[in-house]
Write a structure and sequence with these properties.
Blueprint: H1 2-17, E1 22-28, E2 31-38, E3 43-47, E4 49-56, E5 59-66, H2 75-82, H3 96-106, H4 111-129, H5 133-136, E6 148-151, H6 156-165, E7 171-175, H7 181-191, E8 196-199, H8 207-217, E9 222-226, H9 234-243, E10 248-250, E11 269-272, H10 274-277, H11 280-292, E12 296-299, H12 306-313, E13 321-322, E14 335-336, E15 339-341, E16 344-346, E17 356-357, H13 358-363
């Protein structure tokens, strides 16, 4: 597969060298949530984003940056970073390693901004090869798991609506670490016995509080716990891992592949998100490295359009669990892409990351 890919890439690289050049475009786009998103430390109804387009002659690759506040990025920081990119350095879109090294030379961090370019490059190169990226990776789309669907606490009326909206999905994701979180679990359990997974978003303050909550959740058909405590406290997580009947998954504690080796002591798995690691280039490496260290793999997301969600979904067959519902939680998606069928991530045969602009779909 790799040899075939290299030969194909070389032939297309020759084609792109003769082409008229890459056009690089980006613009802000605010995502509107269907319901308020209530986390341990905040509540919000919108997520700022930036859309990216890389066009080579008649082929366009789409990318996206989504910036929840805790990442420390903003529309201003993302557009400032993107303004420094020389489109000529993207002329060979297959040179992913060189392009990432070039972006890192512009500034460290800025992972969401880099993810937007990376996703667009993957979409463009996949389209040039006429293949979806899961096929280029050699992955079986039938192995993609069911996605979880997030239900956050709210008023009783809105919460009932959220639970009803979760009916098509096989796993429910619950935000804890907020007031009334146990009541939220009990409310969900009055409506459904579907498996749940819990994201505490660092909301539990002590190891004893975390263990008490986990022991209580162990009888609630809970699959795992994400980031129970402060990401900067690996010793407490290691203590918890030794005693927890449920797997402990790192989320805020992990961003890039460089973080993973140190996490095996304190966690059972890692949540890989494109906006944290800079795109598919490092996300794929993270999944392979995590597996080699005996860690479980989760593919997650931020609040994103079907662009970034469909990109992350290319890695779904590598995962034990996926949480790819970000596009389902917004009211103004720009794209049509990966689908959820009977609760399961269902990948498109379309090349690249498998998306079509929604405007083109509605025009048909």
């Amino acid at each position: 597969m790799r040899k075939h890919l290299l030969v194909l890439a070389a032939s297309i690289a020759a084609l792109t060298a003769a082409a008229s050049g890459i056009t690089f475009r980006y613009y802000p786009y605010e995502l509107r949530l269907r319901h308020s998103f209530n986390l341990a430390a905040m509540s919000r109804t919108v997520t700022p984003g930036v859309q990216v387009e890389l066009r080579l002659d008649s082929i366009t690759g789409y990318g996206e940056a989504s910036m929840p506040p805790y990442l420390g990025e903003s529309v201003e920081s993302v557009t400032a970073f993107l303004s420094k990119i020389d489109p000529a350095r993207l002329q060979n879109p297959f040179a992913l390693e060189d392009i990432h090294a070039y972006m890192d030379s512009i500034a460290p961090g800025n992972h969401a901004a880099k993810a937007a370019v990376d996703i667009a490059l993957h979409d463009l190169t996949g389209k040039l090869m006429g293949q979806p990226w899961y096929a280029i990776y050699g992955l079986d789309p039938a192995k993609a798991p069911c996605t979880s669907y997030t239900v956050s606490n709210d008023t009783p009326e809105v919460l009932a609506q959220k639970i009803a909206e979760a009916e098509p999905y096989a796993v429910i994701k619950v935000k804890m670490g907020v007031p009334g979180d146990r009541e939220l679990i009990e409310t969900i359990r009055r409506h459904t016995d579907k498996p749940i997974c819990v994201d505490a978003n660092q909301g539990w303050k002590t190891r004893e509080e975390a263990l008490d909550n986990i022991l209580w959740l162990a009888d609630k058909n809970c699959l795992f716990i994400e980031q129970p405590m402060d990401r900067n406290d690996p010793d407490s997580h290691a203590w918890l891992k030794e005693r927890s009947p449920l797997p402990i998954i790192a989320d805020e504690a992990v961003q890039t592949s460089a973080d993973i080796p140190a996490l095996a002591r304190a966690y059972d798995g890692v949540n890989i998100k494109l906006m944290k690691c800079g795109g598919l280039y490092d996300a794929y490496r993270m999944a392979i490295l995590a597996r080699s260290l005996g860690l479980k793999v989760m593919i997650g997301c931020m609040t994103e359009t079907s662009c970034a969600i469909s990109a992350a979904a290319q890695l779904a067959p590598l995962a034990d669990w996926v949480d790819l519902d970000g596009n389902l939680l917004i009211a103004n998606d720009l794209f049509d892409g990966m689908k959820i069928v009977d609760g399961r991530v269902t990948l498109s045969v379309l090349p690249g990351i498998g998306i079509v602009p929604a405007a083109e779909v509605s025009a048909e």
